[in-house]
UniProtKB/TrEMBL annotation:
Residues 72-222 form the Dyp-type peroxidase N-terminal domain. Residues 36-73, 301-330 are annotated as: Disordered. Its cofactor is heme b. Residues 36-51 have a biased composition (Low complexity). The keyword Glycoprotein does not apply. This is Deferrochelatase/peroxidase EfeB. GO terms for molecular function: heme binding; metal ion binding; peroxidase activity. One of its GO terms (cellular component) is cytosol. Belongs to the DyP-type peroxidase family. Keywords: Heme, Iron, Metal-binding, Oxidoreductase, Peroxidase, Signal. PROSITE patterns: DYP_PEROXIDASE, TAT. Residues 235-416 form the Dyp-type peroxidase C-terminal domain. Residues 302-330 have a biased composition (Basic and acidic residues).
Length: 429
């Protein structure tokens, strides 16, 4: 990793400062997901769209790709039109069996990313595939595999290999966590061009793993891009109607990702963890009825941005930088506005995180209210960046409209150039 980084273009200080000043539009870490804390693309524009899936991938956004590489490809690619996040409890008796499960999952992920169907079984046997995608052609699914803190308990003798900052997600700002939707030994994030692609992938993975894994919780989601997207602007919106993802760092800037997302040598992490990244997942309930009864002016003051364009309240375009120094009393952008609190006090890659957001709808709750919200995922080289953002956002006005109810902290495994994901973790070196 270090050798490759030296050959890449170095991200500019201007890029870091520009992104830090924007503050995250949509949702930031805390009551509403995670904040922008990193640099934009090399052109210096805040809010330019980060790495979308789909370059040369037909009409969809998820390209057919290789499972192999230094990093898992699903981290930087996205967000796709549909997603599914699922956590599992491992039921393997020992580390050897766990290694077999990781090998099986890796083989299935390889096939799913390539859009390969399994060989058919004889008619007298159960089908080798659910047939959910019959008539749809080869639909690739992008799958990312992560491990949770509980995998490093006494069961598999992995305690001394736990990533340094990985721990169970405790109660953070405004949390009311449901234990049935929180934590897990393993986490998979599936992205696809349609919900059926994600469901199909989940059934392939659970079927292949068999009794080795028990599903702990899952949540499906979707992205809602603007039909008339503006060049250089964010095209996703959350269920509060605001743009989601403004100011995300450029996932296509390899040097920036090395400094912002990927764990590297010198970070004090176990050798097996190099090339992975910390993952924060938050299932964030939105009280949409209350939000819909709030005036547009009040909504925009809560966010600090305009609802239509995503521009900061002291600007005219989404890519404009908020001028906090010119507004010390918060007359244009309130002092407790989401983007203002989300803004890190120091700029640079050490404060970075790459955010992904997917909307969800779970029908009604027990009170007859719409149960809707955001599946928020962030990737960061250091988990402390997420936690510091949570502290800054504690008590913000957004808490009246949102409530985190599940998720967890995980570690996305390094990619597999050969072998299988997690091989360095579970095999003796």
């Amino acid at each position: 990793m270090a050798e490759e980084s030296g050959a890449r273009s170095r991200p500019s200080r201007r890029a870091f400062l520009t992104a830090a000043a924007t503050g995250g539009a949509g949702f930031a870490a805390g009551a509403a997901g995670a904040t922008l804390l990193a640099g934009p693309p090399a052109n210096g524009q805040a809010g330019a769209q980060d790495g979308r899936a789909g370059g040369g991938a037909g009409n969809g956004r998820v390209p057919r790709g290789s499972f192999r590489g230094e990093h898992q490809p699903g981290v930087l690619t996205g967000p796709a039109l549909a997603c599914l996040v699922a956590a599992f409890h491992c039921r393997d008796r020992d580390r050897t069996a766990l290694a077999g499960t990781l090998r099986t999952l890796s083989d299935e992920m390889d096939a799913l990313m390539a859009g390969r169907a399994p060989a058919p079984n004889a008619a007298t046997l159960p089908p080798s595939d659910s047939s959910l995608l019959l008539g749809q052609g080869d639909q690739p699914a992008l799958v990312t595999l992560s491990v949770g803190a509980s995998l490093f308990d006494a069961r598999y003798g992995l305690a001394d290999r736990r990533p340094a900052e990985l721990h169970p997600m405790g109660l953070l700002a405004n949390d009311r966590l449901d234990p049935a939707r929180t934590h897990g030994d393993l986490l998979v994030l599936v992205q696809g061009d349609h919900p059926d692609v994600c469901l199909h992938a989940l059934r392939r993975l659970t079927g292949a793993a068999g009794d080795s894994l028990r599903l702990a919780w899952s949540q499906d989601g979707f992205a809602r891009p603007d039909a008339l997207a503006t060049a250089g602007a964010t095209d996703n919106r959350n269920l509060l109607g605001f743009k989601d993802g403004t100011g995300n760092p450029d996932a296509g800037n390899a040097a920036l990702m090395d400094r912002a997302v990927w764990v590297g040598a010198g970070d004090g992490e176990p050798a097996w963890a190099l090339g992975g990244t910390y993952v924060a997942v938050r299932l964030i309930r939105m009280f949409v009825e209350r939000w819909d009864r709030t005036s547009l002016a009040a909504q925009e003051r809560v966010m600090g941005r305009r609802k239509d364009s995503g521009a900061p309240l002291d600007g005219s375009r989404e890519t404009d930088l908020p001028r906090y120094a010119d507004d010390p009393r918060g007359e244009r952008i309130p002092l407790d506005a989401h983007i203002r609190l989300a803004n890190p006090r120091t700029a640079g890659p050490e404060k970075a995180m790459l955010r992904r957001g997917f909307n969800y709808s779970r029908g009604l709750d027990a009170d007859g209210l719409l149960d809707q919200g955001l599946v928020f995922v962030s990737y960061q080289r250091r988990l402390v960046n997420f936690l510091q953002a949570q502290e800054r956002l504690k008590g913000e006005p957004m808490e009246a409209f949102t409530r985190p109810e599940g998720g967890g902290f995980f570690y996305a495994l390094p990619g597999a150039r050969d072998g299988y994901l997690g091989q360095g973790l579970v095999e003796d070196q």
